[in-house]
């Protein structure tokens, strides 16, 4: 008979298969909890998972138990009510201890009304993007802006003391001392051997003048060896710096949104999902991503995320105020030579009629020459207005860096996002 013995050590996450089965089985409940968590979270708060709770009654499963089997005779002491063959009435289920999963009230112990567990960051994002055909993102910048960085470029004999290479300088000094001492040491060794041979001769045959010359030569050679400097200016080596272009690894994302009376909270929730996707998209490409929130009605202001999404104001809409503010922020804090600039704008399409032309001129003449990408989403089921038509002229002039789409409901967010960036990524490949 052949025996198979599995001697592999138990690795981490050995229950991963069972966990995936559990997540798949209760996907509906988990997805509902994840959607609620997304609405509570900040856009940048994606470095952790989420604690999810599921009602216990929704995960209850039948349990099979083995009975004792066979015929048994049991004597219950103190039994005054029942005889053999009597049927015991089933408990009504109210009161008494309340086990796990029971919904009845109890004055003993603790109830277990829900089952809680934690999703990892990857699992959390999987449920955020569930049912959405998010394209495969290339792990490289959409556009590498070159900035100059001083890097080491070998060694040189001249330089400033702050850039001296001690290790290389000592190595050069050691090599120089070896090279300069070698012939002197050979001559010293020969003189010492000749002196020893002369002193071994018979005193009658020994030449005192020769002995004196050899001793003088030995003393001169030893002084020459001692005179060799430990380190010389010839030995010094300095690190050499050269200007090398480096791809910029930092990006800033401007979130621009209309907060006038026509933008409902549902519109803002849809915009938040779109901004979240764009932030995650940029986070895959850049080491550092900063967010700037600009809200506008008739006037534009830079605000924090809480005020950006959950504050509502009344009044008209002037989009050019937001574009002007974005341009001023770029000039003041984010020079295009050092930052990769992205703008995402969400609106319901309303704008002052005379302002749409101004928006087009601002984009064409000032913003688009500096930006890597501009994405405009119009959240409305109605026909397009003047702002959309003016933006179409901008898209025709900058087809590679300006994109615009319409979103009717939340189900359109991910397909629209895919369309906005599909052409860009296909060209990079």
List the helices and strands and how they pair.
Blueprint: H1 16-25, H2 27-40, E1 50-55, E2 114-119, H3 121-128, E3 146-156, H4 166-199, H5 208-227, E4 238-247, E5 250-258, H6 265-283, E6 288-296, E7 300-303, H7 305-310, H8 319-333, E8 340-347, H9 356-367, E9 373-379, H10 386-397, E10 402-407, H11 413-428
Parallel strand pairs: 5-6, 5-8, 8-9, 9-10
Antiparallel strand pairs: 1-2, 3-4, 6-7
Protein name: UPF0229 protein F1978_14605
Biased composition (Gly residues): 93-106
Family: Belongs to the UPF0229 family.
Account of the protein in words:
This protein is α/β, with parallel strands linked by helices and 429 residues long. Helices cover 39% and strands 18% of the residues. The strands form 3 sheets. A 6-stranded mixed sheet has the order 7-6-5-8-9-10, with helices on both faces. Strands 1-2 form a two-stranded antiparallel ribbon. Strands 3-4 form a two-stranded antiparallel sheet. Helix 4 packs antiparallel against helix 5 (208-227), helix 8 (319-333) runs parallel beside helix 9 (356-367) and helix 9 runs parallel beside helix 10 (386-397). The longest helix has 34 residues, at 166-199. It is flat. Mean pLDDT is 77; it is low at 95-111, 132-145 and 423-429. Belongs to the UPF0229 family. It comes from Vreelandella piezotolerans.
